[in-house]
Write a structure and sequence with these properties.
285 residues; alpha/beta; TIM Barrel; 8-stranded parallel beta barrel; two-stranded parallel ribbon; globular
Length: 285
């Protein structure tokens, strides 16, 4: 199915303010936004759980996770669920508990550490500098949870050294197929969103690994998405990654972003995969 492309909707992300941006965080709103993305061509939805008061902060609440899953599955029974696991520090009990309770088909596996930085135009830090720490022993713990619960790892790579580490994980036996790889581009202190860099990143991936681009930014991200589609990669967008359509217009939600992604995929000769086709492409290996 080389002409098929798996499209993921990054539904909501973390920390962005729902009072300023179209970020769903209640089970009902998350389910409706998922349905709009699904109808537009998304086969996978990537999920974060947020507090139910203001919707600003991440939570690891198994009851909330179940409510979200039930609401989504009622509207989109066959969509593939992909849960975040991003947490700083050694204690992984929160995300591990959600994975063990829900047993989603996929989960993010943050595959290396990054100094997560952003500087404003005046030179001030956008937030206090922080380390998104993902040492090998922490990765090993997450992979154990995923393996025990038949969850496919989505290996998120924030710089080229992390991309190259996937082959080392495989050689060591820490990582085993099936898995997918995500090339995270556009974070100021990580890999830049550049079409000329993309072929190099792909060349450093383990042979035959399914991969996608995660591109953070404004309307400039779409050029990288198009190159990804041309190179045979899978695609991801959503309000976790961008609030802007290719023409620079601010988006009203996830549905229009997925519509634009599906249109772009078709322009380069690829058709969005159904969830069942996505399972064959990503899992049957």
């Amino acid at each position: 199915m080389s002409d098929k492309v798996v499209i993921t909707c990054a539904l909501n992300g973390v920390l962005t303010d729902p009072s300023r941006h179209p970020v769903p965080y209640t089970p009902e709103d998350m389910a409706q936004s998922t349905k709009e993305a699904y109808d537009a061509g998304a086969a996978i939805v990537h999920l974060h759980l947020r507090d139910q008061q203001m919707g600003r902060m991440p939570v690891w609440d198994t009851d909330l996770a179940q409510q979200v899953v039930d609401a989504i599955k009622e509207k989109c029974p066959d969509i593939i669920l992909n849960f975040t696991t991003g947490v700083m520090g050694d204690d992984i009990s929160g995300p591990a508990g959600v994975l063990e309770h829900i047993k989603p088909e996929m989960a993010a596996m943050n595959s290396g550490s990054l100094n997560y930085l952003k500087v404003r135009s005046n030179g001030d830090w956008a937030w206090p500098p922080l380390l998104f720490d993902n040492p090998v022993d922490k990765i090993e713990k997450f992979l154990k949870v995923m393996g025990d619960n038949d969850i496919i790892p989505e290996c998120e790579c924030f710089d080229i050294g992390i991309v190259r580490s996937l082959s080392l994980f495989l050689k060591n036996g820490l990582l085993k197929p099936p898995f997918t790889a995500s090339l995270v581009q556009g974070v100021q202190s990580g890999m830049p969103a550049r079409t000329d860099l993309l072929p190099i990143l792909v060349d450093e991936l383990p042979d035959g690994a399914p991969w996608q681009s995660i591109v953070i930014g404004r309307e400039e991200v779409w050029e990288v998405h198009r190159k990804t589609a041309e190179l045979g990669g899978n695609l991801r967008t959503g309000v976790e990654d961008t609030f802007y359509l290719p023409d620079g217009e601010k988006v009203s939600g996830n549905g229009p972003l997925i519509e634009e992604m599906a249109t772009m995929a078709r322009e380069v000769g690829r058709e969005p995969a159904t969830p069942e086709e996505a399972r064959q492409i990503l899992f049957d290996r």
